[in-house]
Structure formats: C-alpha cells, structure tokens
Amino acid sequence: MEFSQDDFDRLLMFEHARKSAEATYAKDPLDADNLTKWGEALLELSQFQTVAEAKKMINDAISKLEEAMMLNPTANAMWSIGNANTSHAFLSPDLSEAKKYFDKATDYFQQAVEEDPTNELYRKSLEVCAKAPELHMEIHKHSSSQQTMGGESSPPNAKGSKKKANSELKYDIFGWIILAIGVVSWLGMAKSHVPSPPPR
C-alpha cells in the first residue's frame, strides 16, 4: 500500500498523539480522557499496519479504551471502543469471529446513544453497525475473488505477491471502514456546520 502525502501527515499526527498520551499516562495513569485519546490514536495508527500488526494495535486500543471506561464511562469512550471492535471485525475473515466483534460494537454504540441520545454521530454509527455483517461478507467475497484472479498469474511460491495481496486486502477493508465511518462522521460534522440560510 502506498501512502499519499495526506496519509503520511495523518500518520505523523497520530504518532505524535500516541507518544504524547503515553507520556501523559506516565505522569497520571488515572486520566480517562488521556487514555481515550491514546486508544483513538492507536486505532488510527492501525490503518497503516499489516493485518496482524493492525489487530494487535486495535487490541491495545481496546485495552486503553476499556481502562478509560473503568475510570470514567463517557459516551465518546463508548463510541471509540465501538469503532475499535468494528475495525477488528472487518479484519477477521471468518464471519462468526467477526460477528462477536460486531455484537460488542453494537453494545458500545447503543450505550453511547443512551448516554447522549441527541448525538447524530452515535446514532448513525449504531445504524451502520447493524449493516456491518452484510458489508463484511461483501468485502471478503470481493477480496477473495480478487486474490483468486490475481493468484492465477503469479507463481505458487511468490511471497511478494501474497504480501501485496494481503496489503491490498487490508487497504480494501480499511477503505470500507473509512467509507462507512467517514459517511457517519461527515453526517455528524455536516449537521453541526450547516450555515443558516441568508435572511430574505
């Protein structure tokens, strides 16, 4: 997967956020907001990793977010842990394994909605999560057919082509996640940034 300048800028920004949160944690391990920021930074950074490394980083993000939830269960932390579980689910090719993560995500999104029912982003995330298993099947069906077509032209022991296929699969999955979450985020931001109509 090749990075654009925007990707590289995001990578640097979230790596800085991760390091900053880690330093703050060393001084104050009971800062729930900092733990939430740390978990969110890890979740963002996971998009730039291989599938195995991404899963490990997402698990670390979930751990930080759960720690934050024990200290101060905010709607934002609930929503973030829902996103982390959704991301992990999409990286799991087995639908039954993925479904466990989607169910956890649904629970956290539901809690976030109950905590802040007026938040459009939380409600849209809950709606998107309900459709996630169907989307999961489509993504993995699509990516396996791409790998099959691509695999016919490559030698059987071509490790480079397998690594590239895995990288493309991860990119496809994160692309769908980013699309789904991006639409939800955009809806949330668009609603809060809609200018008032000019007076007539």
Give descriptors for this structure.
200 residues, 0% strand, single chain, mainly alpha
Task: Characterise the protein shown here.
- The chain has helices spanning 5-27, 32-45, 51-71, 75-91, 95-115, 120-130, 132-152, 159-192.
- It is mainly alpha-helical and 200 residues long.
- The chain has one domain (5-190): Serine Threonine Protein Phosphatase 5, Tetratricopeptide repeat (Alpha Horseshoe).
- Helix 2 (32-45) packs parallel to helix 4 and helix 5 runs antiparallel to helix 6 (120-130).
- 32% of the residues are buried.
- Mean pLDDT is 78; it is low at 151-173 and 178-200.
> Can you tell me the CATH topology?
Serine Threonine Protein Phosphatase 5, Tetratricopeptide repeat
**Residue-averaged pLDDT:** 78
Tell me the structural class: mainly alpha
Q: Tell me how many strands there are.
A: 0
Q: What percent of the residues sit in helical stretches (DSSP H or I)?
A: over 70%
Family: Belongs to the Tom20 family.
Pfam families: TOM20_plant
InterPro entries: TOM20_imprt_rcpt, TPR-like_helical_dom_sf
GO cellular component, one term: mitochondrial outer membrane translocase complex
In a nutshell, what does this entry contain?
It is found in: Mitochondrion outer membrane. By secondary structure, the chain is an all-alpha fold.
Set out the fold topology.
Blueprint: H1 5-27, H2 32-45, H3 51-71, H4 75-91, H5 95-115, H6 120-130, H7 132-152, H8 159-192
Membrane topology: Single-pass membrane protein
Subcellular location: Mitochondrion outer membrane
Family: Belongs to the Tom20 family.
